[in-house]
Amino acid sequence: MNPEALKRLLTDVRAGTLPVEAAIGQLRTLPYEDIGFASVDHHRSLRQGFPEVIFCEGKTLVQIRAIAKALLKHHRPLLATRATRQVAMSIKRLDRRAVYHDEARIVAIRNPKQRLQGHVLVITAGTSDIPVAEEARVTAEVMGSRVETLYDVGVAGIHRLLERQNRLMHARVVVVVAGMDGALPSVVGGLAPCPVVAVPTSRGYGASFGGLAALLTMLNSCAAGVGVMNIDNGFGAGCLAHRINVLEQA
């Protein structure tokens, strides 16, 4: 919202011609900044509790830098997903606090005053699933959740999970990342008392069809309380897990 529009809005509220609730509604939907190739949503943090996130795949370095610069004028923290080291170096020149998480392929600038809350547990079936899990972990942490990890506990050696089953009992939400047959979320869903976010990965041999087999298995889970993300969507899982995690307990 430009200064003139904001001034009119506040003037109308003061004059009593615009109810406060209506003004808040307008503030929740505006403004955005038109930079030609992108319309940067500066009010997403007001609507959803976190600023717009930059998805770097398919964007040029110039475009990513310009979007990051526009966001950093108004917001901390910042997340840029599916980023390369070159992207990280470019953003770091805008803000030296930027950190590149290599395995997650995320550039993050955290809010130094933010206190992590709740408890998200991120689990993988195998070591090959860790990059997607790390995308979920970093996302949830930068958004403000306290996150723990439990990696390589898939169904081929289920005793590895069962021996640490108590860790499931203390989480407010569990993210389960698995490729191959994608069976682990259903197992966790039958053990955990909290919501489970399942993430299929494209890891697996030919008949896994790039993660489609795992996706279908998770969608057909016989355990209740399991929600399924798209293939390799660690960011989406981290975002959803954070939102569930910070919901006020009844």
TL;DR of this structure?
With 250 residues, this protein is of the alpha/beta class. 39% of the residues lie in helices and 19% in strands. The chain is globular.
Write the layout of secondary structure elements.
Elements: H1 3-15, H2 20-29, E1 32-34, E2 39-41, H3 44-48, E3 54-55, H4 61-72, E4 78-81, H5 85-94, E5 99-101, E6 106-109, E7 117-124, H6 130-143, E8 145-150, H7 159-162, H8 166-169, E9 173-178, H9 184-189, E10 196-200, H10 212-219, E11 226-228, H11 234-245
Parallel strand pairs: 3-4, 7-8, 7-9, 9-10, 10-11
Antiparallel strand pairs: 1-2, 4-6, 5-6
Helix pairs in contact: 4-5, 6-11
Number of strands: 11
Shape assignment: globular
Major sheet description: 5 strands, parallel
What's the rounded overall pLDDT mean?
Answer: 91
The portion of residues forming beta strands comes to 15-25%
| Number of contiguous helices | 11
Query: By helix and strand content, what is the structural category?
Result: alpha/beta
Rg estimate, integer Å: 20 Å
Order of helices and strands: HHEEHEHEHEEEHEHHEHEHEH
Share of helix, binned: 25-40%
| pLDDT < 50 stretches | none
N-end to C-end Cα span: 36 Å
Strand order within the widest sheet? 8-7-9-10-11
Please, could you describe this protein's structure?
The model has no long low-confidence stretch (mean pLDDT 91). Helices cover 39% and strands 19% of the residues. Strands 8-7-9-10-11 form a five-stranded parallel sheet. The protein has a four-stranded mixed sheet with strand order 3-4-6-5, sandwiched between helices. The protein has a two-stranded antiparallel ribbon with strand order 1-2. The two termini are 36 Å apart. It is globular and about 65 Å long. The chain has 250 residues and is an alpha/beta fold.
